[in-house]
Write a structure and sequence with these properties.
The protein is an alpha+beta fold. The chain has one helix and seven strands; from the N terminus they run ββββββαβ. The protein has a three-stranded antiparallel sheet. Strands 1-2 form a two-stranded antiparallel ribbon.
Length: 94
């Protein structure tokens, strides 16, 4: 199965792996949609953390989409499936 994407900026951007089977947006937070996400001024090589989805939430989403007849051979667009709450943790993109 291909990595999920997010289309919040109008272009499909592949998400980053996060945690144990989860995914993190490369282009949006709860208040901002841009690519790349802006850097954190006081931390070198760190960007503002994107929206996240845990591995268990992603599994449930895949099960629901498969039950609805969605073709999982194509990347899943997580744009409308992110959690509504945000995070203030920083990420490092290497």
């Amino acid at each position: 199965m291909p990595a999920p994407v997010c289309s919040c900026t109008g272009i499909f951007r592949q998400c980053y792996k996060w945690g144990n089977g989860g995914w993190q947006s490369s282009c949006c937070t709860t208040t901002l949609s841009m690519y790349p996400l802006p850097a954190v001024p006081n931390k070198r090589h760190a960007r503002i953390g994107g929206r996240k989805m845990s591995g268990s939430a992603f599994s449930k989403l895949l099960s629901r989409l498969a039950a609805e007849g969605h073709d999982l051979a194509h990347p899943v667009d997580l744009k409308n499936h992110w959690a509504k709450h945000g995070t203030n943790r920083y990420i490092t993109i290497k």
